[in-house]
């Protein structure tokens, strides 16, 4: 509402982030150098994090793929995998997902099973400026939404999971470098 907006604008002015550009015209602001610096800081969400959020189908058949392949590849690259159902918490699941994505350096999104939540979580991460590593089981690639098909997606097969783990590890290291996380 307008009162909340005025509070935010007042705070930004007192923090030297913005300045009323014209004294006689209300709500015409100029972003000051300090404001631009704050915006750049916001772009670096998760830059120092060792955590990788994993968005994927919560189906029983995917549990072993997560543990033996996806999480293993992330750890081998030196990062800490986080899948929201692998950690005890007392929060609403949606709030926990958003909080953990914000704490992460990047996200691995596996679109096998084409779950709406995976699309949402990948989009949210992209909106924050986080990189997303895209993966999908090879026989389901043709069902990827057209917005996702443009990305370089790692396809994988059930009988070649070791290859998938290695490809995921290599992609992470090429994009982010070798991490420092140790189990």
Biggest sheet strand order reads 4-3-5-6-7
Structural class: alpha/beta
**Oligomeric state, counting identical vs distinct chains:** single chain
List the helices and strands in order. HEEHEHEHEHEHEH
Q: Biggest sheet, open or closed, and with what strands and sense? A: 5 strands, parallel
What value does the average pLDDT take?
90
User: Can you tell me the overall shape?
Assistant: elongated
**Cα Rg:** 20 Å
Give unreliable regions as ranges: none
DSSP summary, beta strand count: 7
- The DSSP helix count reads 7
What share of residues is helical? 40-55%
Description:
With 183 residues, this protein is α/β, with parallel strands linked by helices. The protein has seven helices and seven strands. Strands 4-3-5-6-7 form a five-stranded parallel beta sheet. It has a two-stranded antiparallel ribbon with strand order 1-2. Helix 3 crosses helix 7 (161-176) and helix 4 (93-102) runs parallel beside helix 5. The longest helix is centred in the middle third of the chain and has 17 residues, at 60-76. It starts with a helix and ends in a 7-residue tail after the last helix.
């Amino acid at each position: 509402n307008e009162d909340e907006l005025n509070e935010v604008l007042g705070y930004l002015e007192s923090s030297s982030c913005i300045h009323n550009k014209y004294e006689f015209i209300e709500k015409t602001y100029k972003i000051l150098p300090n404001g631009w610096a704050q915006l750049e800081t916001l772009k670096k969400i998760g830059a120092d994090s060792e955590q990788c959020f994993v968005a994927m189908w919560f189906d029983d058949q995917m549990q072993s793929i997560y543990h033996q392949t996806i999480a293993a590849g992330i750890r081998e690259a030196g990062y800490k995998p986080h899948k929201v159902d692998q950690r005890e918490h007392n929060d609403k699941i949606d709030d926990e997902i958003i909080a953990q994505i914000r704490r992460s350096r990047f996200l691995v999104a596996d679109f096998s099973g084409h779950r709406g939540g995976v699309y949402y979580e990948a989009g949210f991460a992209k909106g924050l400026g986080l990189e997303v590593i895209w993966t999908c089981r090879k026989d389901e690639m043709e069902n990827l939404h057209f917005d996702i098909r443009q990305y370089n997606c790692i396809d994988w097969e059930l009988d070649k999971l070791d290859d998938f783990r290695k490809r995921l590890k290599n992609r992470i290291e090429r994009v982010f470098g070798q991490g420092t996380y140790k189990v």
